[in-house]
# Entry
Amino acid sequence: MKVLKLHPLMTVSLLQMQFQRLLSCNIAVYMRNSPANAFDTLQEAGFLENMLIEYPIDETLSLREFEEELEDRFNFTLELCNKDNKPFTNKSMHLFQLIKGLSDIAKPGYANGNEYNIQLERLINLHNNNRQGPQPFSC
# Structure
């Protein structure tokens, strides 16, 4: 089962990397009806949660159903795109039809999502450290 991980401090580019790894496609994220910058966070795009959310992907959904479900659940707008960043025109296609063998998209430094996992781990650690507040000073 594929699991989408969302965090308010996650950047749009990190979310795009996750979609490339999980569904072998790109996404466009929108903020107030215009394309979001790659460095914008999901919080800036409208994600209202304040912690890491793990969301299982139902691969039987159509592209349209999946986009609508994410928009309704997480309050930010996205559109699934092909490798050329052009939105899919056949929105009735199912998610499982997008997924190719991971060996087809494996690249040096990106195989099995290592680059993505390292960045997500750093983001979560940064968020957890900021929530703890200042450390007590000792002599």
